[in-house]
Amino acid sequence: MERTPSFLAFESLLDLSKKASIKKNREYEENDKFCFYRNFTSLSWYSRLNINSLPERDEKILERIKTLCTESTSPKYISFAAEDVYNDLNNDLERIGFKPVKSQKGMILDLEGSKEYDKNDSIVRIDKKRLPEWVDTCERGFNKSVNCPIFDILINDKNCMFFGYIADGRIVSTALLNICGANGGIHEVATLESHRNRGCATELIKHIINEGKKSGCEILTLQASVYGEPVYKKLGFKPVSQIYNYMP
């Protein structure tokens, strides 16, 4: 598969999904059109089907996607970058019973020549002991349930680094760095409502930029919400794709 900028923006997320799927002996399917990872988890981002390349309408592929994603134990999300699919895919997905949810921007930061930031003593690396607190903050920051076994799997992965911003003696902001070869994926960036607009998440991203360099990453990638995109742009991230998400 060609590692286009739009694919690179997804690569780490797909890597996390596959790790969880393999670890728990779940089902996954990969081909030149899509990749499918079933993890039986309430955290839908890690149980997903991503359409990697579909330049033309293919009714057999659409039917296969529908079959995989409408089973009771299937992924909750279908995702794709607009740059990698034909123009009417959105309409075709709605025609076969899927509904659109939030859209995002795939973003990339080239670490070569990027700024090095001062150390922030409020940021800590999260270990197993503090993981439940990290998960609780992430859950409340997103205002939805993310408490699921995948984090218990990933905390043991040498390529996954959990970070927290500490204020008032507790974790108030979260982030996860997953190193996928030369690609460092940033995930689970969330801040408690009581500590928003104070720069906590921004400081976490700065810390991850430093860590990515130390770990030998060439790029950092993420999927940004409409609210997060301006923050990431200020730190040097550039949008490379328009990401659409659908649910059955």
List keywords for this structure.
248 residues, alpha+beta, twelve-stranded mixed beta sheet, 7 helices, 12 strands, globular
Task: Furnish the topology, listing elements before pairings.
Elements lengths: L4 H19 L4 E3 L3 E4 L10 E4 L7 H11 L7 E5 L7 H7 L3 E2 L3 E7 L12 E3 L5 H12 L7 H5 L5 E8 L2 E11 L2 E9 L8 H15 L4 E6 L4 H6 L3 E10 L1
Rg measurement, Å: 18 Å
The total of helices stands at: 7
Oligomer: single chain
How much helicity do the residues have? 25-40%
If you average the pLDDT, what whole number results? 91
Strand content: 25-35%
Annotation, overall tally of beta strands: 12
**Major beta sheet summary:** 12 strands, mixed
Quickly give the structural class: alpha+beta
Order of helices and strands: HEEEHEHEEEHHEEEHEHE
Q: What report would you give on this structure?
A:
With 248 residues, this protein is α+β, with helices and mostly antiparallel strands. It has helices at residues 5-23, 59-69, 89-95, 131-142, 150-154, 200-214, 229-234; strands at residues 28-30, 34-37, 48-51, 77-81, 99-100, 104-110, 123-125, 160-167, 170-180, 183-191, 219-224, 238-247. It is globular and about 55 Å long.
